[in-house]
Amino acid sequence: MTISIAQNIARLTERIERAEGNAGRQRGSVKLMLAAKHQPVENLLAASAEGVTLFGHNIVQQLEQSVQGLQEAAISSINTVIGPVQSNKLRAAMTWADRIDTVDSLKTAQRIARRQQARIDDGEASGPYPILIQVNSSGSTTQSGCSPDELVDLAGQISELDLVRIDGLMTIGAHTSDTAKIHRSFALTRELSLQMRGLPGLEDAAELSMGMTGDLDIAIAEGATTVRVGTAVFGERPRS
Ligand SMILES: *Cc1c(COP(=O)(O)O)cnc(C)c1O
């Protein structure tokens, strides 16, 4: 199977621009993050040749391989973690990723703060480590993320950690063909973002990472600042 990553990115860019226009939003206001899971580094290099250099990774081992491959090719990229991180993988995740987008508990944030202190002591880092808080906006029991009821309290507690910086929220929309439900999960996340940004120090935590191949148009209508796309660019995923 040959797929044209360049062509797919061109089509997707048009789709994003159309959704921005329909939502009365400025063209180019939504960032494209490519979901890199199970993609060989060649595919990430093909995307970067089209100017897309923001990648989200679900699996820490693949994150490390991808970042090394991109670095060897002298591509400067931004890489985040968009899957759950087990505590024994946190150290590697922070070494290779520029941000972790799936923090959903104070405990994880505290671990990140402790690890960041160690990195600073070792001269590997300076300043706080950036995160997004993941919200379970669909109410699905199989989904990660803090419950919407807890979000504002959790953000307040995390914001007191000096070595963690909250950049915004991440969510996975309701997994359903009922578009009204999908709208509701994204709208809820946007409302939570507004509430959270009322807390001291979180005024600028405006990142809203939501929307994938199937629902990115809805997410953009509801205020997404970043969409995370795999299938529309890389085709159906190869099995690991
Ligand atoms: C795989 C994945 C995506 C992209 O999904 P597609 O439907 O392939 O576009 C987005 N976000 C997360 C968290 C993912 O795991």
Automatic annotation (TrEMBL):
It comes from the Bacteria. Its cofactor is pyridoxal 5'-phosphate. The modification N6-(pyridoxal phosphate)lysine is found at residue 37. GO terms for molecular function: pyridoxal phosphate binding. Residues 7-238 form the Alanine racemase N-terminal domain. InterPro entries: Ala_racemase_N, PLP-binding_barrel, PyrdxlP_homeostasis. Keywords: Pyridoxal phosphate. Belongs to the pyridoxal phosphate-binding protein YggS/PROSC family. Pyridoxal 5'-phosphate (PLP)-binding protein, which is involved in PLP homeostasis. This is Pyridoxal phosphate homeostasis protein. It comes from Trueperella bialowiezensis.
